[in-house]
Fold this protein.
Amino acid sequence: MAQLTDLNVSPYYDDFDEADNFHRVLFRPGFAIQARELTQLQSILQSQVERHGSHMFKEGAIVIPGQLSYSDTFTTLQLASNFASETIDPSQFFNATVPVTITGATTGVKAYVTGFQAATSTTQPILYIRYYKTGSDNSTTVFADGENISADKAITHTTGYASGVASATTFATSASATGSAVTIKPGVIYTRGQFVKVTEQTLLLSANSVTESARVGLTVNEELITPEADSTLTDNARGSSNFAAKGAHRLKISLTLSKLDSTSTEDSKFIEMMRIDSGVLISKARPTEYSVLGDIFARRTFDESGDYTVRPFLFDIRESVESTVKGTKFVGTYSDGATTDDGGTASESKLVVACSQGKAYVKGYEFEKLGTTFKDLNKQEMLQQLMQQSLT
């Protein structure tokens, strides 16, 4: 899939069309160079890169692996303001090179700051932390609600009256919590005909819940960068940026770690990398999924070995909701009326078929499940099928 940004508009006029079969732009002495010609030159070269890339890689393939990990023991700390008009910039607590250490004034607990989330209109700023030392009593392992914390570097708070170096205060309730998050390390992803670098990022799924459900992946962002927005695009022929000599614009493609609802199908700008169901990792992207080459290997594998399992899938039939039959109580998978994993409504008229983890090769392609999948089964329909089978 090529880029979505249309460059055949003013002032670029990139009217490159593959149907023309133009493969080179041939400049001539004595003739002015058009901006369109220079832009088309890039489009011709990019078209060749995209054709080769799409032959080798699938859309969203991990070309240079950046480790993708899910944690359901992700520790966080909410910060509160000392004064009603005070604001705290949590980024001051974070240093990617040398981790900042924070210490609780009351408990004496120590932790490293591994990241942060800025405050919103409804939430306090949050620090991502990793505890490494218990408190002064040698038993307390987390920061206390409402206690003051200090960092081993200067932290500046801004109030409505003045600014200065100060410590921070934890939130009044549930300041220290365990949640869930996804982290991706630096790597390269093939998307929209480009090999795009992804930076190290952490996505907080929840600050205090380990049972989140989501599709986690990368959102593809395209934007035009101008010299007015980025002064480095001005002429630097003399070793420094010349604000009076504005250069060309740039098309920037960036990847942001983000999440969608489990039922969302808005994939035009989203590359799914991981799927989580109620805190359980269901699927995860693997490095380098080849395109045509992968199809060839899959066909050969199927011709040689057919379909087979490496780790067999186990199936288990359960009640959808709690029920009692002839005095025997059966535990239900869901509460009555709840939405099932299959998108239905849990009731006594249904059963649940649970498919366990496993790994198989189907038509030569590797298929692996990392978690249990639940499918609804109607009792009446199943009974009718069994009766029909018994009659035949």
In short: The chain has a mean pLDDT of 86.
